[in-house]
Amino acid sequence: MEHREICCSSEQQNRWMEIQDKLKKRLITEDEFTWELPPSLPSSSSHRELNREGEKKQVLKYVGGVDISFLKEDPSIACGTLVVLELESLKVVYDDFCVAKLDIPYVPGFLAFREAPILLKILEKMKKDCHPFYPQLLMVDGNGLLHPRGFGLACHLGVLADLPTIGVGKNLHHVEGLNHSEVRELLETDGHKESIFLTGNSGCTLAVAMRPTLCALKPIFISIGHRISLATALKIVKMTCNYRVPEPIRQADIRSREYLRNHPLVSPNP
DNA sequence: GCGACAG
DNA sequence: ATCTTGTCGC
């Protein structure tokens, strides 16, 4: 076979952009889910909303997190990981893994084409089994709306899995003029702020930069994935932050690495 | 033209 | 993403 550009040619990127534009038409950027947030204060009286059938709405209980780790010896070997945590206790109640060879490289702005397929596979397996802990919400290691075309991995996964998703970035993706020094200045205005809204050149609010713990100087970047508002996403992230990285993503990250350590030399799916 | 660029 | 030592603090 000749040495042709198969992975990240401009033609490939154009095709990827068309897919992103097409999927983006299905994106929902406001709260649209069947559950509700748990009461912030343990209130004695329950005033939960009723759904159309006059029943109590379900409360958000099972929060998923996804991440992928790679084999240092062969960076094309990936371990996709899904964890589900019980929101109240932040304990892991489910995890699953999938080791595979990824042929698509990481290209900034097109992370989903590399990582979404393996993650969708793990999600679909759990859904097919009608597992009782199937997540009501998914936190994604990567951005959502904070993306050159407003459709990062969290949006991509949310639309394809039809799940509410929140994007959590550990580094800033420089889009719409946003840059690290600007974020740092904003956070340090008026003493030190816990979080700030990030607005791009277009005037749209794209994300929130927040420091979940007092000691962490470096912020995380929260953006909308699918079927959720930024305000709600922020509340949920705050509920799950034992450390700088929210627990669902942190656990997915930890367990993903651990899985690769403990399962050496297994031949991945061809 | 040059640099920047989630994971 | 991954490679890496020590170091500071509870």
Account of the protein in words:
The chain is of the alpha/beta class and 270 residues long. The protein has a single domain (28-36, 56-262), classed as archaeoglobus fulgidus dsm 4304 fold. 29% of the residues lie in helices and 23% in strands. The longest helix has 18 residues, at 111-128. The radius of gyration is 19 Å and the shape is globular.
- H and E order: HEEEEEHEHEHEEEHH
Number of domains: 1
Give start-end ranges of low-pLDDT stretches: 1-6
Shape: globular
CATH-defined superfamily? archaeoglobus fulgidus dsm 4304 superfamily
User: What's the mean pLDDT score?
Assistant: 89
> What is the CATH T-level topology?
archaeoglobus fulgidus dsm 4304 fold
Distance between the termini: 19 Å
- The name of the CATH architecture is 2-Layer Sandwich
Number of strands: 10
Helix content: 25-40%
Strand order of the largest sheet: 5-4-3-6-7-10-9-8
- Our count of helices gives 6
C-alpha-based Rg, rounded: 19 Å
> Which structural category do the helix and sheet elements fall into?
alpha/beta
Major sheet size, sense and barrel closure: 8 strands, mixed
Strand content: 15-25%
CATH class: Alpha Beta
InterPro entries: Endonuclease-V (IPR007581)
Subcellular location: Cytoplasm
Organism: Carnegiea gigantea
Protein name: Endonuclease V
Characterize this entry briefly.
With 270 residues, the chain is of the alpha/beta class.
